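Intended use. Records like the one below are meant for learning the mapping from a protein sequence to its folded structure. Do not use them to infer anything beyond what is encoded.
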Amino acid sequence: MEYRALGRTGVKVSTLVLGTANFADPTPENEAKQILERAIDAGINLIDTGDSYANGKAERIIGRVLKDSGLRKQVLLTTKVSPPTGPGPDDRRNSRLHIMQACEDSLDRLQTDYIDFYFIHRFDPNTPQEETLAALDELVRSGKVRHVACSTHPSWRVMEALKISDSRGYVSYCCEQPPYNLLDRRIENELVPFCLEHGMGIIPWSPIAQGVLTGRYTNTVTFPEGSRAAYRGGIYAERIDESGIDVGNRFVALAEEAGIPPIQLAVLWVKDQRGVTAPIIGPRTLNHLDDFLPVSDMNLSDDVRRACDELVPPGGMVVNFHNSAGWGAKSQILGVSDRG
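Structure written out for the chain above:
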């Protein structure tokens, strides 16, 4: 397993990150436990979760496994705050009140004294960043959090946060976690060069484009049983369109010609893109994890990279994977027009 520096933190992380959004929803706890233990055994040292995943059940599973196995010190844990975690008006978003309580709740569910990387899950236009960053700074100074980061934020919002932290002496974001795959490459226009310039890590989510790049979807009406588009609907179903399916099918053909399983090529493409620290893999089953793991020892050839660029050009998009962001229209997100 290769390890890369995460921004300017000095921390080395595996080139694959284990995502746990499927834990408890739908992956049962016994299989989630097997996935977690096998991933750690394979050398993955960064475990990504969130306080809203399966209403906190994903965190509880991770906490039980790490405590029972004694593996907590061998891994780095991320979790996130912002989405609703209760019925109350303050059980969400990025206020100091919610962040402080959410952190305590996550620590309890994870059965740990500290969180290695605490992410602001989504941009909150109703809370000043000064308040959010002050709360995060307090958590770091108290030892409950080691580093702070953000997910699916526009570049200007991250820049604003860095300036506030610098001027007020607060802890700074060390990493951004955006959606990134061959179907939606728009972070290459601003976010990637921004992060490179400011020494921030990039840990992308959805590298296989929700399965579109594996040829899983054949139409926009009938979704495969067990797919996120089928059982979760909403924003997940919105990401399945004819353009994406067409590119997905051509990508599968490209992968077959290259002699690489499509699921591996999709993750490999993200892993070896400029500025990327490590993509998040989100196995639903133990077999899925076994499909992902070989990517850590693979390298993307220049010929295959060029072939991928012909499917969707650098900076372009055919499917909107920022549709959970809550900011910007499809054609306006990241300040670029639709291409590809």
